[in-house]
Design a protein that fits this description.
Layout lengths: L2 H8 L3 H23 L2 H17 L9 H32 L13 H19 L3 H11 L5 H8 L3 H19 L3 H4 L5
Helix pairs in contact: 1-2, 2-3, 2-4, 3-4, 5-8, 6-8, 7-8
Length: 189
């Protein structure tokens, strides 16, 4: 990794950031997948890491970007595993005594739960297949709850550019998701 690439990223160069992403995305996903044993979770963790890198790009150091990315990916994977452990322990308690959490009524049926899992998986896979810039705009807006203006600033483009990328993303998603699309990406949106 050259110092000039890091310098360009620090100055907000999206093309330089995309070059960094292309070089490290796959190896970082492999490292994280080794811990979490889920490719989709690994990709989400790595995507969040790159989001943080972009948002804190002014603090990047040319001499340590590789080490920072790999140690951060490892730490995020370990954090995810700790969180999953807490969720499992809590779930066991609730399953044993649902009234503890005040949710003794209204558990979803097994079929509904499976359908919901399938819907989420289909949406995640469809998002993963989007063109990279459209995917980034959508993830920043939806998952990180950024406004179009914030997305525009983060990506170094105009608000109209963000709107165009989101329209492309939603058109692709509606085409690939069929019935699942109306719930997550309503046509009037």
């Amino acid at each position: 990794m050259t110092a000039s690439l890091v310098h360009r990223i620090r100055n907000g160069d999206v093309a330089a950031f995309e070059e960094l992403f292309r070089e490290f995305h796959a190896p970082l996903c492999e490292v994280v997948d080794g811990y979490v044993r889920s490719q989709s979770v690994a990709e989400e963790i790595v995507q969040d890491l790159f989001f943080v890198v972009w948002m804190k790009r002014d603090r990047l150091r040319a001499d340590s970007i590789r080490g920072y990315l790999f140690s951060s990916a490892r730490n995020r994977a370990l954090h995810h595993l700790r969180h999953q452990s807490v969720v499992r322990r809590w779930s066991l308690r609730v399953d044993a005594r649902p009234e503890v959490a005040g949710i003794s009524q209204g558990f979803a049926s097994a079929d509904e739960s499976v359908e919901e899992d399938e819907r989420r998986r289909a949406v995640r896979e469809a998002i993963d297949r989007l063109p990279p810039r459209s995917r980034l705009a959508l993830v920043l807006q939806r998952e990180h709850r950024m406004t179009n203006a914030d997305v525009a600033t983060a990506m170094g483009i105009s608000i109209k550019g963000v709107e165009k990328l989101l329209a492309i993303a939603k058109r692709h998603l509606r085409a690939s998701l069929g019935a699942h699309a109306d719930r997550d990406f309503p046509p009037g949106e």
